[in-house]
């Protein structure tokens, strides 16, 4: 499919999920099953399928990883400076976190796969793992520090280690490093499941999106969208262009960092004293605008 067709396909899935939820077809229980399928089955299958048979020398790049981490930390620092004027700690903490915490798993990896291909998917899988190791502990620390909330950082780190996508990434890289063959039947099944990753993820995201227009802090939401959807990918393009020589790695890194705010930030906000209404509004606004931003990046910049 062309880039425009891919964009229409993604918006179509997102819209279908919103309509299905409105009509009562995508109930909370069904959405939970869909999310579990995406998280425990489709996304791990995509990660393994994209890494197990690749040449690690072609997809692994220390410069790519360094650029990726540098952009994440830089945007987090900029967000801290820009949102420091927000008086309420619950709002300030959420605004900072949601300005950098990206949806690498449910949207980043599937979108990279469908728009940039299998070789980019392997690079994106590695960046997904790196991103989880950086942004999850950072998010917990920011929310704990600003809101004086209590949380066990060790449990969060153990949660990363038990994450099925991360576990599958390690296994897939092990297959690639040891040059282990993947049986034909298994490879075929994984390919089928991988194809379901984006539809399942987008429908799951749609089922989780909600927007209550009453009482929304429009300036703060606008600042979060500007940082997450515009500043972060543009900074990524500059940093990757300077540090990384592989054009495909540049495109992959920029698209991954152009992803909207992760839905998981709403959960973290709920658990650690953040403003949940602002968190929900930011997820909705960045998700809709990020898909358009990715199209513009791929069409006119990358």
Helix content: over 70%
Question: H/E order of the elements?
Answer: HHHHHHHHHHHHHHH
* Named CATH topology: Na+/H+ antiporter like fold
Based on helices, strands and strand pairing, what is the structural class?
mainly alpha
Residues in β-strands, percent:
under 5%
Which shape, going by the Cα principal axes?
Answer: globular
Given the structure, what is the number of helices?
15
CATH class equals Mainly Alpha
Give the CA-CA distance, first to last residue: 18 Å
What's the rounded overall pLDDT mean? 86
Poorly predicted sequence stretches spanning 5 or more consecutive residues = none
CATH architect. name: Up-down Bundle
DSSP strand count:
0
Main beta sheet: none
Give the C-alpha Rg. Answer: 18 Å
The total domain count is: 1
Word description of this protein:
The chain has helices at 3-22, 28-51, 56-59, 62-82, 89-98, 104-116, 118-147, 153-162, 164-178, 184-195, 197-208, 218-243, 247-257, 264-271, 276-301. The chain is an all-alpha fold and 302 residues long. The chain has one domain (3-297): Up-down Bundle (Na+/H+ antiporter like fold), CATH 1.20.1530.20. Helix 6 (104-116) packs antiparallel against helix 7 (118-147). This is Putative malonate transporter. It is found in: Cell membrane.
């Amino acid at each position: 499919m062309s880039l425009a067709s891919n964009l229409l396909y993604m918006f179509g899935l997102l819209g279908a999920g919103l309509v299905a939820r409105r009509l009562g077809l995508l109930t909370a229980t069904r959405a939970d099953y869909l999310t579990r399928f995406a998280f425990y089955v489709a996304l791990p299958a995509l990660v393994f399928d994209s890494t197990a048979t690749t040449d690690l020398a072609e997809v692994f790049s220390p410069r790519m990883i360094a650029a990726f981490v540098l952009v994440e930390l830089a945007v987090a620092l900029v967000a801290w400076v820009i949102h420091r004027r927000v008086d309420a700690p619950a709002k300030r903490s959420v605004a900072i976190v949601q300005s950098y915490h990206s949806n690498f798993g449910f949207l980043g990896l599937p979108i990279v796969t469908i728009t940039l291909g299998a070789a980019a998917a392997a690079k994106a899988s590695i960046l997904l793992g790196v991103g989880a190791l950086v942004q999850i502990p950072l998010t917990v620390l920011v929310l704990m520090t600003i809101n004086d909330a209590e949380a066990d950082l060790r449990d969060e780190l153990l949660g990363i280690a038990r994450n099925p996508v991360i576990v599958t990434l390690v296994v897939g890289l092990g297959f690639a490093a040891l040059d282990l063959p993947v049986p034909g039947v298994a490879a075929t099944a994984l390919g089928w499941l991988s194809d379901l990753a984006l539809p399942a993820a987008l429908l799951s995201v749609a089922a989780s999106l909600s927007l209550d227009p009453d009482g929304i802090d429009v300036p703060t939401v606008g600042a979060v969208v500007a940082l997450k959807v515009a500043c972060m990918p543009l900074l990524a393009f500059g940093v990757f262009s300077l540090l990384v020589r592989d054009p495909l790695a540049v495109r992959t890194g920029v698209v991954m960092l152009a992803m909207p705010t992760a839905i998981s930030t709403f959960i973290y906000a709920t658990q650690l004293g953040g403003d949940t209404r602002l968190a929900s509004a930011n997820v909705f606004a960045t998700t809709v605008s990020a898909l358009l931003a990715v199209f513009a990046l791929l069409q006119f910049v990358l």
